[in-house]
Design a protein that fits this description.
Shape: globular
Structural class: alpha+beta
CATH superfamily of the domain at 4-53 and 117-191 and 289-368: FAD/NAD(P)-binding domain
CATH topology of the domain at 4-53 and 117-191 and 289-368: FAD/NAD(P)-binding domain
Keywords: Monooxygenase, Oxidoreductase, Signal
Strand content: 15-25%
GO molecular function, one term: monooxygenase activity
Protein name: FAD-dependent monooxygenase
CATH class of the domain at 4-53 and 117-191 and 289-368: Alpha Beta
Number of strands: 22
Number of helices: 13
Distance between the termini: 69 Å
Largest sheet: 8 strands, mixed
Helix content: 25-40%
Length: about 450
């Protein structure tokens, strides 16, 4: 008997879900309402698409497992993406000071435009699996409270399926669709710091091609709006410069204000770099940045035949760089379950949803525990437990400015190679208690060559 899976959404989460299902069914149909570009171009329906994206080591590992025999990493690097070491390839000012840079290697991350990443993954999945992408708008689910049996398309066309995966992103209507089948009682939570992203792309100046990724993090501990800035190397000899500000500290959309904002950050290094760089685009603004969590795994009832992944399940403040990796890890959970039991096994959808929920929890806690500290946040306030975790996290970050052991623990968690429990391992605890053995850097830890590049670009 032929088996079909339908995936709603041809973004990263949807394509990785298709890869996860491709060996378990005879047909995988991926549906998206947009016309997808044939190359690395921006697409509609992706509010954050023009802003900075970081593919962490944990997410890349999951992607490589989901698309075996095709090295997505190598394809990205061949297309111009950058692989950045967290230990040596990044200059970062945190709320606790500048991070030391180490000659020893740590985990890495991939930096490129979201358009390039999506195109490479889409090409890899459609070229190596039986997944087929079709343009169609899904308007509802077929079935009842006990089992989802397919989807309803615009124009009342129906498409039957043994398994439906909703990876339709922030705009998913899954809770409305479920209510129409009689599945209710789903809890949702939104934590909104009012973050606004502003991004502009520049040409990398002559001599600056090897300048490290540079970031000035927001400080959530000073009872003021958070403000941050990043210079991110991407393909095509370009810098993507992304600014972010929480409610009351939003970055502006005009060029003069954009530069002034970078110079007014806790350190002006981002502004000094771009003051001598040529802008290639205008300034793109996005406000789709709130943390939203649908607790589908806790629903009193859950129908067979339906799984929800990616932003349709949980969205995160993009400042933390977790969304793509969480989507990949969720697809990996789906792959493991269908590989073991097949797509029609009793209880499969519930097991997948609970497993994916666990993979979301750590990222959600990391994002929300920071966002609730900003003035004007909507949807949450820090409790006693949050304050205890914050106190320990600050101590760990203070140690990480000059302790390799503390920094390694932080890298493992932020790169999503491990969960937050890594911060409480014996070695990490000792490092946090001992503090930094090195004095904090007085300024950005640049090499003499990098200092010359910065001085040559500085027009301020």
């Amino acid at each position: 008997m032929s088996r079909r899976a339908v995936v709603i959404g041809a973004g990263l989460a949807g394509l990785l879900a298709a890869a996860a299902l491709s060996t378990a069914v005879d047909e995988v149909v991926v549906l998206d309402r947009d016309d997808l570009p044939e190359g690395p171009e921006h697409r509609k329906g992706l509010p954050q698409g023009r802003h900075a994206h970081l593919l962490m080591a944990g997410g890349l590992t999951a992607i490589e497992e989901l698309v075996p025999g095709v090295s997505v990493r190598e394809r990205l690097l061949d297309a111009g993406a950058h692989e950045i070491s967290l230990s040596s390839g990044m200059v970062a000012l945190t709320a606790e000071g500048w991070l030391h840079r180490w000659r020893r290697e740590g985990p890495s991350m991939i930096t490129c435009s979201r358009a390039l990443l999506d195109w490479v993954v889409r090409d890899a999945v459609t070229g190596s699996t039986r997944a087929e992408v079709r343009r169609a708008a899904v308007t509802g689910l077929l079935g009842d409270a006990g089992r989802v049996r397919g989807v309803r398309l615009d124009g009342e066309t129906e498409l039957a399926a043994d398994l439906v995966v909703d990876a339709g992103g922030r705009g998913s209507r899954v809770t409305t669709w479920l209510a129409g089948l009689g599945v209710t009682g789903i809890r949702e939570r939104t934590v909104d710091s009012g973050l606004v992203n502003a991004t502009r792309v520049y040409r990398v100046p002559d001599g600056a091609a090897r300048f490290p990724l540079t970031i000035v993090h927001a400080n959530p501990y000073v009872s003021r709006p958070g403000r941050s800035g990043m210079v991110l190397p991407i393909e095509g000899d370009r810098w993507m410069v992304s600014l972010a500000g929480t409610r009351g500290g939003e970055p502006p959309a005009d060029p003069e204000g954009f530069l002034r904002y970078t110079l007014d950050l806790p350190d002006p290094i981002v502004g000094r770099l771009i003051s001598g760089a040529e802008p290639l685009t205008g300034i793109h603004i996005s406000r789709s940045t709130s943390n939203v969590r649908r607790y589908l795994e806790k629903a009193p009832r859950w129908p067979e035949g339906l799984v929800v992944l990616g932003d349709a399940l949980a969205t995160f403040n993009p400042a933390y760089g977790q969304g793509m990796s969480v989507a990949a890890m969720g697809a990996r959970v789906l792959a493991a379950e269908v590989r073991r039991d097949g797509v029609t096994a009793a209880g499969l959808a519930r097991r997948v949803q609970r497993g994916v929920g666990r993979s979301v929890d750590a990222a959600w806690s990391m994002a929300v525990s920071q966002d609730v500290l900003y003035p004007g946040v909507r949807g949450g306030r820090p409790g006693a437990g949050d304050r205890l975790v914050t106190a320990y996290t600050r101590r760990m970050m203070k140690a990480a400015t000059g302790s390799y052991a503390a920094a390694s623990a932080v890298w493992d968690v932020t790169s999503m190679r491990t969960g937050p429990e890594r911060l409480f391992s014996p070695g990490a605890l000792l490092a946090a208690l001992a503090g930094s053995p090195l004095p904090p850097p007085a300024g950005a830890p640049l090499t003499p060559g990098e200092q010359k590049v910065l001085a040559a670009l500085d027009r301020t």
